[in-house]
Design a protein that fits this description.
It contains 12 helices and 9 strands. The protein is an alpha/beta fold. The protein folds into 3 domains: 111 residues, Ribonuclease H-like superfamily/Ribonuclease H (Nucleotidyltransferase, domain 5), CATH 3.30.420.10; 70 residues; 107 residues, no CATH class. The strands form 3 sheets. A 5-stranded mixed beta sheet has the order 3-2-1-4-5. Strands 6-9 form a two-stranded antiparallel sheet. Strands 7-8 form a two-stranded antiparallel sheet. A hairpin with a 2-residue loop joins strand 7 and strand 8. Helix 7 packs across helix 8, helix 7 packs across helix 12 and helix 9 crosses helix 12. The longest helix is centred in the middle third of the chain and has 35 residues.
Length: 335
């Protein structure tokens, strides 16, 4: 699509800064409260501009989690064109910069949208059921973190602290740990209910979990991260997104060893790592592959585990793209 107006939006908890550009020309900057009422009022002001049209405009903003929600809801209701970019992507495109403010950041975002206007990918909202699944998965993750932060120190103290002191601490934390365990159980039941209630989620969940090593938690995170395999359809792109794809660093005579990038979804990477460990133990093919690479070829263990992660990603996407469950004794029909 060809755009005439580029609106850079700097998002914070309490305010939104809008920088409105027509081509390269900055028309004006405006700061409004991050509330639906203020955003709707700003859109009415925009529509009063001579020649302004939402169809010929694009709103560009950074990912800031839940702080984006009011702006996204109001803009999507008006059928506006929205582009969501990673903050690191915009920052890297600016070169060497000095100083920053909300006003300046909104102008820089608008300039980024103008420069990259031919490559912008328009944002599409996730289905409501997927959004609910994402919130429940995040809640489960926070509950697990709380459980670990309380329970792990109690376990580690067993060999170093007097039993009477340890018993007192365990008794004090018993109610909290019990409540967290009960809330975790309720959350997992709610996640199962959401998946069972939607045919598409149920189908994808069955396909993803058919791969040995991929459990319910990992499958849920993959489905949410890929937006039901709509935003990320290529397994290589997902491997890059999850930080399991190695990249080489070469310059002239220097030939560096291929390494994975730190720019990744660390939660997905952690879950894929645990899935790879399970696959090595319970999948005979993966186990033979791991033992051959480590014992016979002398490869680094972590490099081989990372290769197993990549293989799991490829298998998951193959099952989804072909709409069939993973077959451990699959034989090619052309063989």
């Amino acid at each position: 699509m060809e755009f005439t107006y580029f609106i850079g939006t700097d998002v914070s908890k309490n305010e939104l800064d809008f920088a409105v550009m027509r081509g390269k020309e900055l028309l004006f900057h405006k700061e409004v409260a991050n509330t639906p009422e203020s955003i709707r009022a700003f859109l009415k002001d925009l529509l009063r501009l001579p020649g302004f049209s939402l169809r010929e405009s694009v709103f560009c903003m950074e990912h800031t989690g839940i702080y984006n929600n009011h702006a996204l809801a109001c803009l999507h209701k008006k059928k506006a064109n929205i582009c969501m970019e990673a903050a690191s992507q915009i920052k890297s495109s600016l070169g060497n910069i000095r100083g920053k403010s909300d006003r300046v950041d909104s102008i820089r975002i608008a300039e980024y949208a103008y420069r990259c206007r031919e490559d912008l990918r328009l944002w599409q909202p996730k289905r409501e059921v997927v959004q609910r699944l994402a919130h429940l998965a995040a809640t489960r993750s926070r509950l697990l973190d709380a459980q670990t932060s309380i329970g792990t120190p109690l376990k580690e103290k067993k060999a170093f602290v007097h039993k009477r002191v340890l018993s007192q601490e365990a008794q004090l934390c018993k109610g909290t740990l019990g409540a967290i365990a009960a809330d975790l159980k309720k959350t997992e039941q709610a996640i199962d209910t959401v998946i069972e209630s939607d045919p598409e989620l149920k189908r994808l969940f069955a396909l993803v979990t058919s791969v040995t090593g991929i459990g319910s938690v990992t499958a849920t995170q993959i489905i949410v991260s890929t937006n039901e395999f709509r935003d990320i359809k290529d397994p290589k792109k997902f491997a890059c997104y999850s930080g399991v794809a190695p990249f080489t660093r070469e310059s002239g005579m220097y030939k560096g060893r291929a390494k994975v990038s730190h720019m990744a979804n660390k939660k997905v990477k952690e879950l894929l790592h645990m899935a790879a460990i399970v696959a090595i133990v319970y999948n005979s093919d993966m186990k033979r592959y791991y033992e051959r690479k480590v014992n016979e070829e002398g490869k680094n263990k972590m490099s081989v585990i990372n290769a197993v992660r990549s293989k799991l990603v490829l298998r998951v996407f193959a099952c989804v793209n072909q709409n069939r469950k993973y077959d451990k004794i699959y034989t090619n029909a052309l063989a």
